[in-house]
Amino acid sequence: MQHDTTTLKDLSILGGTHSVFQLLDFCTTQKGKEVLRKMILHPPSNYESLQQEQEVIRYFAEGKATLPTIISNGTLVMLEKFFESADHIPQKPSGFNLLFNAYFQKALNRNEYSFHQFSVSHLADFFKGCKELTLLLASQILPEKLRNHVQEIQRELEQSKLTEALLKVKKEMGYQEMATISYEARRELKNPIERLLKRYSQLDAWQSIGKAAVTHHWSFPKLQPSIPVVYEASGLYHFLFKQQTAYDIHFNEQENFLLLTGANMSGKTTYMRSLGIGALLAHIGSAVPAQAMTISFLQGIITNMHVEDNIHLGESLFMAEVQRIKQTAQKVISPHPHLVLMDELFKGTNVHDAFECTKAVVSGLLAHPHHIMVLSTHLYEVAQQFRGTASIQFHYFETQLTTSGPFSFTYELKKGISNDRIGYRILEKEGVLNLLKGKSE
Fold first, then answer.
1. Is pLDDT above 60 for 98?
2. Of 126, 133, 168, 138, which Cα lies nearest the Cα of 153?
3. What pLDDT digit, counting tens, does each position of 34-61 carry?
């Protein structure tokens, strides 16, 4: 799956205090967090790879594998510091030099002595933890991708001449033993340790996503090939809200377009974000915030929600919107299915222009039934123009209105086209009109 920075921002995937990344982040190491971020930025590129990714994460979510507690973030940090000096290895310690250095380091440079002793201890812990991971290979039900991953860890341990010595290291060791292991490790293990750290960090990221599934009570989606395109879910909700409103969705090649109407603040944008977040989570192998989901492998997600003008490029809001629609058009001419989410197109021009432009874009998008597309609009006349089109689903968010003026939102999604217009009422409710007339609120 492909996405860009605009889509990641629109869906609150990485940044901010309430992001998808934060929900997924149960990593025990900083390097694990970095891998998790890369997994979000670069999801699997094909259906088969995605299936394998989900199998591994589901395995962790079911508690069939856990990472060794002997390895901590401090372990990885110390190993990095230890091998930073590997390019400047001193002479191998021996004889009188060992005896002298033992006295010198303890008496005159205790910090340096403690650093080497502490580093070797962490190095030993890391090898012991990696050895513990290889016990997973005894399982007959280990997912293939995870088995291959752990086998690479085992291969590194078997090829290292220091593995046996490191597995025997105890907390209390003499300076001679410590200095010898330190010298040999920095001479022999820098590259193997870098590879092992990458392997372990990937395991940390997989376990993190698995733990997120259990913690948030999410369910794993059923993954389907790209064609025929399908996106179905029951009980799909947006994770940011304490009182979640769950929705059932159904898209296929016969009904691939949703035209969404409703008043401001009624729930349209949040609903579309739920669709986008659910799809993205599914495409990194994660569980999703829904009771159940079936989704085809999508080539990408493209959103058009919060387009802004660009002062540096001298680009107006309308021109920025046009450029984003152009990028959307370049995606939908592809035969590979995408999820396209469009929120209130052409806000940077007058109502008549916005109506004509939106109508033209919808007409063009309807020629591409192998994509899943959602458009929200305040221009209810646009929805009326396409009433009766078989491939379009029409839904709206209800606003409860009274004759006296007050209104409220139910966040309930109903079939049909809205006709709610509450902008004027909001101006009155917030006291804007009275302020302009010189009256107090």
1. no
2. 133
3. 999 999 999 999 999 999 999 999 999 9
Distance CA 126, CA 196 (A): 9
Number of CB atoms found within 10 A of residue 218's CB: 21
d(CA 114, CA 103): 13
Strand order across the 407-415 sheet: 300-304, 338-343, 372-376, 257-262, 392-401, 407-415
Residues of the chain with CATH 1.10.1420.10: 5-216
Q: Are 321 and 346 in contact (CB under 8 A)?
A: yes
Distances (CA, A) of 200 to 30, 71, 73, 274, 304: 11, 10, 11, 32, 37
Q: What is the DSSP string of 155-183?
A: HHHHH-TTHHHHHT--SS--HHHHHHHHH
Question: For position 188, what pLDDT does the model report?
Answer: 87
Amino acid at 18: H
Output the pTM of the full model: 0.88
Report the top-level CATH class of 5-216: mainly alpha
Instruction: Indicate the fold that domain 222-436 takes in CATH.
Output: Rossmann fold (3.40.50)
Tokens of residue 139, six digits: 């399982």
Provide the β-strand partners of residue 231: 251, 295
Chain mean position to CA 22: 9
pLDDT of residue 96: 45
SS3 content of the chain, % helix, strand, coil (to 5): 50, 15, 35
Residue ranges, CATH 3.40.50.300, the chain = 222-436
Is pLDDT above 80 for 132? yes
Start-end of H helices in 334-429 = 351-365, 380-385, 423-429
* Distance in angstroms (rounded) separating the CA atoms of residues 21 and 239: 12
Q: Is 202 helix (H, G, I), strand (E, B) or coil?
A: helix
Decide: residue 244, CB within 10 A, 0-12 exposed, 13-18 middle, 19+ buried: middle
The closest alpha carbon to 270, from 341, 220, 201, 327, belongs to 341
The tokens describing 422, both together, are 């509450």
- Distance, in Å, from the CA atom of 391 to the CA atom of 125, rounded to the nearest integer, reads 60
The answer to whether 356 touches 323, Cβ cutoff 8 Å, is no
Write out the two tokens for 18: 């309430």
